[in-house]
Design brief:
alpha+beta, NADH Oxidase, 5 strands, binds flavin mononucleotide
């Protein structure tokens, strides 16, 4: 598949068929994920691929505890100008659908990263925390985006979810994630029920500056 076609259509897919995905395809998707860079080329990542029905159900049960939080989040949010109330409602329904059907995906991928202790001597403890957070995110989310695009190229749908982070200890127990590792996402993956439609976003002209904050980028 052409790269730009994948980028422009790899939208959030929350309705996933239970049909199994061949192991060699999942393996190709993971192999694309690990082509991403990471700080110091540490490659401290681990991708937990959950295919066992009991384990998937346990993760789905944990995720479902966040249902009210999600409902409230969509219902009470101040809508940014690029999202209409109808779109917000559609996203809410889609998020609630996933909450009820999470376990049905043939696989759930949980990308994790070793939590490198970082202490830059001249930074305050708050600055160190912020630095470490961004370094960690930047060392796993590019791999996750590779995974999303590779999945798209095989006709697989997925969605990056983070709601489980509100119940991290429970996820840790179910999956046996060691204390010195953090999970960064939980991603149901499989063949989607719906077609891949084009991703819509705010235009570049609204989100890019040139040379200095506030000077519009001429698209
Ligand atoms: C950091 C991050 C966290 C997200 N967490 C969740 C989540 O917990 N549950 C969920 O259903 N979707 C989650 N999403 C999916 C977003 O809602 C989705 O990317 C966004 O609505 C754009 O959807 P689209 O690609 O279909 O336009 C998350 C996305 C990102 C990037």
């Amino acid at each position: 598949m052409e790269l730009f076609d994948a980028i422009y259509s790899a939208r959030t897919m929350r309705m996933i068929k239970p049909d199994p995905v061949p192991r060699e395809i999942l393996n190709r998707v993971l192999d694309a994920a690990i082509r991403a860079g990471s700080a110091y080329n540490n490659q401290h990542w681990t991708f937990l691929v959950v295919t066992d029905a009991v384990q998937k159900k346990a993760l789905a049960d944990i995720y479902r505890q966040g249902a009210e939080h999600v409902r409230d989040g969509y219902a009470k949010r101040v809508l940014p100008p690029h999202i209409t109330p109808a779109e917000n409602l559609k996203d809410l329904n889609s998020a609630m659908y996933l909450i009820e059907h999470y376990h049905e995906a043939p696989a759930i991928i949980v990308p994790c990263l070793y939590n490198v202790p970082i202490k830059v001597p001249w930074l305050t403890s708050e600055q160190n925390t912020l630095f470490a957070l961004r370094l960690a995110g930047a060392s796993i989310y590019p791999a996750i985006q590779n995974l999303i695009l590779a999945a798209r190229s095989f006709g697989l749908g997925t969605v990056l979810t983070t709601l489980h982070l509100c119940y991290e200890d429970q996820v840790r127990r179910v999956l046996g994630i060691p204390d010195d590792h953090l999970s960064f996402a939980m991603m149901p993956i499989g063949y989607p029920v719906e077609e891949f439609r084009r991703v819509t976003r705010k235009p570049v002209s609204k989100v890019a500056f040139e040379n200095r904050w506030g000077t519009p980028w001429r698209a």
